[in-house]
Amino acid sequence: MEIAEFNRLAVPGLEALTKLLADGAADHAPAPENCRPFLVGWGLVAALGRQAAAVVALHSEGLGHEAAPNRRLMVEYVAHLQWLVRDGEDAVDSMNRAHQFKHTGLRRTADDHGYQYDTEAADAVRDAVIPSNPANQYSQMNALAKSLGGGLFESYIGETQLSHATLTAAKCFYRESDEAIELSLIPAYGITGDPMEASPFMAFYLLFFGMIAFNNLMIDSPWTDGLKVIGEAAGLPGAI
Description:
two-stranded antiparallel sheet; 2% strand
């Protein structure tokens, strides 16, 4: 199918996914002692849904290029959701260890500049004893995405080039030759077509696979039938 057709199918697909997100996930939470992956997963998939909406909104205003940071973040959310499915409690512990490490740097900066904060809460983060496990190797996004496969690493690296002040991002706005220098306020990629036109479908695609992952964190995987119908209608038959 052409990009325009994928995008056309993505719009009702996103609407259907959004309705499914609101369909009583809390009723399918695991027991409290096994609930950590579910709770972290819900936070990620809810944020993923809002990022999908942001990508579509930017695209509708002709700002698909500028939606690269949002698409990149969606890739991160999907990767972490899949990590939770694969490694469960170990993944949560690894995320907590990464949070503890970053929090240490944040606190040091706050101390250096005299900022006020809740020292009791900060001490609790500092003093928490978090067991080490083999999943710690996936705390860095590159390692996590490579381990999961499915094109996540390639997508992440590609979106990163347009999400930061890179030469790749800068080159989209100028062309030079022996004859002239051409400056533009509109990005161009030196290829046929505009790959950013696929932004709505990418938003749908990433939310869809993120929700497949979260479905596996719920008791009885209640979204399975709904996701099958949505995927088939949007051109992804057999995805679940």
